[in-house]
Amino acid sequence: MLATAGISMPPPPMSRKHGGMAVDFNQFESPSGGNAHERGSDKRHRMVDLSETQRYVAGNQFYNHEMYGSLRPGGQVRLFTKQYLGLVAATFSSVISYSALQGCLRPLLSNELNLTKQENTAVVRLVEVPMLLSFLIGLVADCYPIKGTRRKSYMILGLLVNAIGVLGLAGLSAHFESLETLDRNRGLVILSIIMITIASFGCLITYLCVHTRAIELSQQEPLRHRGAILASYLIVRRIAGYCAYAYTTLVLGTNTAEPNMRVSTAMLLLVVICVLPLPLIMRYWYEETYSLATTVGIRGRIFWKVMQQKAVWRTLAFICFFTLFLTIKFSDSNYQVKVWSGFKSENAIGVRTVQETVIFAVIIIWRYFFMNRPWRLFFAGAPLFMIAPLLLLSIFACMDIVRSMYFYRSMTYVAYISDGVQTFINLVPLTEIIQEGSEGVTVGLVLTLQRVIGIFVNTNSNGLFKGTNFFDAKEVKLDTSSARWDVLLSLLLAYALNALSTVGLVFLPNQKLDAQQLRMYGGFTKGATVAIIVFVLAFVLYSLSIIVMLFTPSWSCYMIAGGSGCT
């Protein structure tokens, strides 16, 4: 028996949909002054027997959805309004500046810096290492607001840092283009790497700011509508990403050896694109102000305790499992399936257009059909739609049952649904568990975890996760029976690793109310913080070791570093 003093709130109506319990969110509204008192005025001193009512979340205590409709004050927001035009502009700038920068770096590294293939790979991985500082940037932003704001001010700072880095790259690129020989001054090469790092660091700050701000605004939404602004935010990101890809393709082309435009000119245009939204951000970015700063030590101790919350570390575990196992791919094996399917060339813009269209459709479907459905049901679609169509494609192509580029395209287009589902991984669960005052550091920690996993997977893409480790390239060209089986077995291994991502669903709360229940009454796990730190350090040290091996000729021959073996 649970006695309630004052007002007694009945559990929400239940309905059976999709094979399990589903909450009728149409009954939920944010608290509005005295409405709660009026609804419960005739139910004072009432005893609620939980054994006689249906429980909608597990635990000895339950989360009162009617009192806590939204997670922070401010009311529901709409992204596509004048008030949030600054956030839209900042999102565009953040995505385009980073994506276009990555495209411009390809001809810069391969042509103008005259790096070897292994040095090129090592530089790309080395530049990614400072991106691990997301956690520290988020912590500093939470502790020390600039002119009273924690997101807007750092967003402007990130844009300026990025512009300085890209401007420096434009100058160095112009100098390299004026040289008649490919000999490069080692000091200028190092300076170029530093400029790349500065530009990437600025992009990181902008991404952290817009991502955190989107989650903060989503927490203002009532329970039934929470997540609507996230869908709008993701739509803006996808449109901006497509524009960045189109810019890179049209300006530089697909052949890095012969770009359509000089890299220095493309870099100067990118600087203009980076700073163009600055007036809109300064004028139309609305954010609550904070007058007092908090020391890093105090905020760090608070967050140390926050990471021990079951709701937090379980959500982080889910994100890590999905990020790690869904990004593992054996590119050599996938390429061979593509060759067997009859592909010789394809329209890159056309493929990207289809991909963005599918992801866009997934975002819309989530917004109107899955926003208030069980999380596990929705996120299970990521491994399902990644593995099922590609497994069917691999079997048909490797066994020479169906080798058609139309079948290949249809299966890969279906697999893009998985990409759409994955766009929500670091948004939807975080919205429910982030606590006010620790938004930046929590988002920063998630981005750090995703980045360190990404570095680990990318570092091993030419080593442990290299398809040619499992088959002989010469036999594959002859299309022998044994070669077909070797390629298929390597792909089956890759899909088995992808399937391990489903373990993460065990840690994920089933829905919004479960997440709030776990956050408020789930308790703490003292060893969780230490486990997270050990996980990050292990992956960072491993990746740095591989980078050192790539720069060392006597070690770069090892297969783990992408070599063909040492004699």
List the helices and strands and how they pair.
Elements: E1 2-3, E2 14-17, E3 20-23, H1 35-40, E4 47-48, H2 85-112, H3 117-128, H4 134-143, H5 152-178, H6 186-219, H7 228-252, H8 263-275, H9 278-284, H10 296-306, H11 310-326, H12 331-340, H13 348-370, H14 375-379, H15 381-398, H16 405-422, H17 428-433, H18 439-459, H19 473-478, H20 481-499, H21 504-507, H22 512-521, H23 528-551
Antiparallel strand pairs: 1-4, 2-3
Helix pairs in contact: 2-5, 2-6, 2-7, 2-8, 2-9, 3-23, 4-18, 5-6, 5-8, 6-7, 6-18, 7-13, 11-18, 12-15, 12-20, 13-16, 15-16, 15-20, 18-23
What distinguishing features does this structure have?
567 residues; mainly alpha; Growth Hormone, Chain: A; 3 domains; two-stranded antiparallel ribbon; disordered N terminus; transport; BT1; Transmembrane protein; transmembrane helix
Description:
The chain has helices at residues 35-40, 85-112, 117-128, 134-143, 152-178, 186-219, 228-252, 263-275, 278-284, 296-306, 310-326, 331-340, 348-370, 375-379, 381-398, 405-422, 428-433, 439-459, 473-478, 481-499, 504-507, 512-521, 528-551; strands at 2-3, 14-17, 20-23, 47-48. The chain has a two-stranded antiparallel ribbon. The protein has a two-stranded antiparallel sheet with strand order 2-3. It is globular. The model is unreliable at 1-60 (pLDDT under 50). It is an all-alpha fold and 567 residues long. The protein has 23 helices and four strands. The chain has three domains: 2-52, no CATH class; 78-293, MFS general substrate transporter like domains (Growth Hormone, Chain: A), CATH 1.20.1250.20; 308-535, Up-down Bundle (Growth Hormone, Chain: A). Helices cover 62% and strands 2% of the residues. The relative contact order is 0.13.
